[in-house]
Specification:
The protein is mostly beta strands and about 150 residues long. The strands form 4 sheets. Strands 5-4-7-10 form a 4-stranded antiparallel beta sheet, with no helix packed on it. A 3-stranded mixed beta sheet has the order 6-3-11, with no helix packed on it. It starts with a strand and ends with a strand. It has 2 domains: about 35 residues, no CATH class; about 100 residues, Immunoglobulin-like.
Length: about 150
């Protein structure tokens, strides 16, 4: 079946014959692109909360930070997560949580609470240099204990 269409240009009228199957294909392609194929580039993934404790020998880790970075060399393409350590504990809610799988965990710890002097924050002397460990985290809500080994 063919469809006759008049196209108007600045110089006058032209008539074209368009095959209906081609017209259907064009319409479906446009709908797919508008509603199904064009996205913001972000993917929805299930994220899980994680909390836990940081241990450094017999010393408390009073303050610091923990970063859980997906190990892309092992195929984990999930999001990274960061939390502050307070009194040797950390907590990351599901909205900023992990997807599970192999992660690089980076920990920085201090033996005293941070002191704020206006816009600057002084954490004092670190208990240890930045510590990194490779772990395989579960794809579910979990509590973890990370033991920082003295060097």
């Amino acid at each position: 079946m063919k469809f006759r269409c008049s196209l108007y240009f600045f110089s006058g009228c032209q008539t074209a014959v368009i095959n209906v199957s081609v017209l259907k294909w064009l319409c479906l392609s446009m709908l797919f692109c508008c509603f199904g194929g064009c996205s913001s580039g972000s993917r929805e993934v299930d994220r899980f909360p994680i909390d836990g404790e940081i241990r450094y020998g017999n010393q408390p880790v009073v303050s610091g930070s923990i970063t859980l970075e997906p190990d892309t060399t092992q195929g984990n393409l999930g999001p990274s997560s960061t939390a502050m350590i307070e009194n040797s504990r950390f907590s990351i809610p599901a909205s900023r949580g992990i997807v599970g799988g192999p992660y690089r965990v980076q920990i920085t710890g201090y033996g005293s609470p941070p002191e704020s002097t206006g816009a600057d924050v002084n954490y004092g002397k670190p208990l240890f240099s930045e510590y990194e460990i490779l772990v395989d985290l579960p794809a579910k809500s979990s509590s973890q204990v990370f033991e920082v080994k003295p060097r």
